[in-house]
Write a structure and sequence with these properties.
There is one protein chain. About 35% of the residues lie in helices and about 15% in strands. The protein has a single domain, classed as 60s Ribosomal Protein L30, Chain: A (2-Layer Sandwich). α2 crosses α5. The protein is globular, with a radius of gyration of 28 Å.
């Protein structure tokens, strides 16, 4: 009978398998992922486009505000240029065009306390307020988070819609602060996203207050339609807004 000699590869494979079994029995392993020294490697990797909602590790209010502004900028810049935030099942209807306000912006009854507080309600609406400016909601720099006074304004606006019917048209705006260091096209896109997030946040609160998605229309102007001169901090803050129109 002819003697068959195993190949070198076969002998190495058997030897390696036997060594692995021996090490396994001893509670050891030779498997090295190569990331054992990377912090957080024991946890699943997060979505790289996810940005925290709130800053962490700040020491002073100024550092916190700077970090919050940067996080808002990062959230707006996370998606590829030209994309829009994912729609929800109850997404409001998109606005076909920006409505013309019943009076020029800024309205005569608006003051700095309204801007700082987060909202202004038009208490002098006409008898038939079609296409009338019902209210304004203001936001911190780079933020789409509603302030307490903004929620009060939206409750009143929701009651107004239930009384008169019609559609609430929301138009989001941004100041030029976030995009001042960017190329014009990229800055315009970032501002549009921030404005869109503000309008979407306002729409979500109105839906929570009982309005149906087809009673709300959402649009965004970015920083293309400032109502205030941004030479002052108050003027810049006034441009971080959502305009709310009632259309019958």
């Amino acid at each position: 009978m002819q003697k068959v000699t195993p190949s070198l590869a076969s002998r190495l494979g058997v030897a390696g398998f036997a060594a692995a079994l021996a090490l396994g029995a001893a509670g050891c392993t030779l498997v090295d992922s190569g990331v054992s020294d990377v912090p957080g490697a024991e946890r699943p990797f997060p979505n790289l486009a996810t940005v925290p909602d709130r800053p962490t590790g700040f020491e002073t209010p100024a550092q916190r505000q700077a970090s919050q502004d940067q996080l808002a900028f990062d959230r707006a810049a996370a998606a590829p240029l030209g994309s829009t935030p994912a729609a929800t099942a109850e997404a409001p209807q998109p606005a076909a065009a920006v409505a013309t306000p019943a009076e020029p912006l800024p309205p005569s009854g608006l003051d700095e306390r309204d801007i700082a507080g987060g909202g202004w309600l038009n208490e002098e609406l006409p008898q038939k307020p079609s296409r009338a400016l019902a209210g304004l909601v203001f936001f911190d720099n780079g933020s789409s988070r509603l302030k307490p006074k903004a929620r009060d304004v939206l409750r009143a606006v929701a009651a107004l819609q239930r009384e008169h019917g019609g559609v609430l048209r929301l138009v989001g705006h941004a100041s030029s602060t976030l995009s001042s260091a960017l190329e014009p096209a990229e800055g315009a896109e970032i501002n549009r996203r921030v404005a869109q997030l503000r309008a979407a946040s306002t729409a979500a609160e109105l839906r929570r207050l009982g309005l149906a998605p087809d009673q709300i229309q959402v649009g965004a102007e970015g920083a293309q339609a400032p109502a205030f001169d941004e030479a002052t901090p108050l003027g810049e803050a006034g441009n971080r807004r959502v305009e709310i129109y009632l259309e019958l």
